[in-house]
Amino acid sequence: MDDPGTLYCRFIDSLNRRALDDLDQFLAARVVQHALEPSAGIEAARRALAGWLEAVPDAHLVIEDLVVEGDHLMARLTATGTPRAARGGEPSGTQVSMPVFEAWSVRDGRCVERWLHVDRSQCPPPPVVPQPNRHPSLGPGNRG
C-alpha cells in the first residue's frame, strides 16, 4: 500500500494521462469532495474530472509543493491548459495557468475526503459578448 504522498503523485500522473478508469486505485468508493460543486462517490468524482478535462483538453498538472503528515496531505499545484470557448466550442488559443490547492484525508490506501480550490483570479476574464437589448424601456435613445 502506497503512502499518501506516493498515492497522490500517482493520482496526478493518472490525470495527466487522462486515465480516469484508474481512479478506483486512488479514491475510495464513497469519497467526499469539497469543491466548487461538492459531491460524494467515485462516479461523481469521475464525472467532475471528465468535465474538467473536456473543458480544458490540454490540461496538465504539476505538483509544486506536497506536505504529508500521517494520513493527511496538502498540495500546491499549477494547472495549465487552453480552455474551450464558451458552450463547448473550440479552444480559445489562450493558455492559462492557475494555482490549485488540494488536501486529502487517506484511509486504507485511498482518499476518503478531498478539499479542492482552484484560484481563477490569475486567469484573464472571459471576453464580453454584447447582448441584444431585450428590455423595451432600454431601447435606443431611451436610457431608462
What does this structure look like?
With 144 residues, the protein is α+β, with helices and mostly antiparallel strands. The protein has one domain (4-117): Nuclear Transport Factor 2, Chain: A, CATH 3.10.450.50. It is built from two helices and six strands; from the N terminus they run αββαββββ. The chain has a six-stranded mixed sheet, covered by helices on one side. A hairpin with a 4-residue loop joins β1 and β2 (39-40). It starts with a helix and ends in a 26-residue tail after the last strand. The model has no long low-confidence stretch (mean pLDDT 84).
**Class, according to the CATH hierarchy?**
Alpha Beta
Query: Mean of the pLDDT scores?
Result: 84
Instruction: Specify Rg, calculated over alpha carbons.
Output: 19 Å
- How far the N terminus sits from the C terminus, by CA atoms, comes to 67 Å
Briefly, what is this?
By secondary structure, this protein is α+β, with helices and mostly antiparallel strands. The chain contains two helices and six strands.
